[in-house]
């Protein structure tokens, strides 16, 4: 069993550390700061923290105003509220004028668990990646979350970073290492965790751990399956995906999101235009989520290592 850690807590701690180095950072929240962990920044820099209340549209508008005055706003709330209540203002006031606002949402995907079906957001990535000028990032674990948040400080323009509610398994070692090798987080560049010969799994967010476990299990069947951490959904790392499609001849995508419009949709669009390749998509089918423990939901909706293994076997059959 891999150790697990909270990406939300890592986000709040990293933001508080960055506040020391960057006085231009301001943080806004919509009455959920103890859940998003922006409360850590609020305690340290109360004069640079703004709780706008349960008013997500205003949240985006205030952030746009602060960005237009040279501040660097980090905006946080649950994903369902940011994308379903604040979308119009994000589009009109932030994306369209290309303002430097970072929207970091928590409680994305099925990991919302017992918070209830009304709080699920299984389409946020599809919505946000369709907006021009908007960078979309989904870290694989808590270690990568810190790297991604730090990278956003140097990144110019609107960005959307999505985190889960639950603690999830660690992919990377301390200092952003993998198997002892130091890595560098670059927006738009995927991380090749395992090189394969028989198939490649492109995974995002908490499904990266599931993909690694699937690769390990399939090795016992004699299959070498590559695993790619596609932490940036937009801009998509087209070069790596096309290279792996050419090398292994078949792909599986894995995500805690609808298979429509997320990673699976983005990869399918790319392959259809540039290199038609057999692929299978692991994710939530065209349906709403149900309330329950998140691990049980992953099993019920087909998002576990076991489901990825089966998808690899099926896509292998397609190329024989």
Termini separation (Å)? 34 Å
Q: For the largest beta sheet, what order do the strands appear in spatially?
A: 3-2-4-5-7-6-14
- Give the oligomeric state: single chain
Strand content: 15-25%
The unreliable regions are none
Q: Biggest β-sheet: count, sense, barrel?
A: 7 strands, mixed
Q: What is the typical, i.e. mean, pLDDT? A: 96
- Helicity range: 40-55%
Total number of beta strands = 16
Number of helices: 13
What is the general shape? globular
Radius of gyration: 19 Å
Instruction: Give me the secondary-structure category.
Output: alpha/beta
SSE succession: EHEHHEHEHHEHEHEEEEEEHEEHEHEHH
What would the keywords be for this entry?
13 helices, alpha/beta, 320 residues, globular, 7-stranded mixed β-sheet, 5-stranded mixed β-sheet, 41% helix
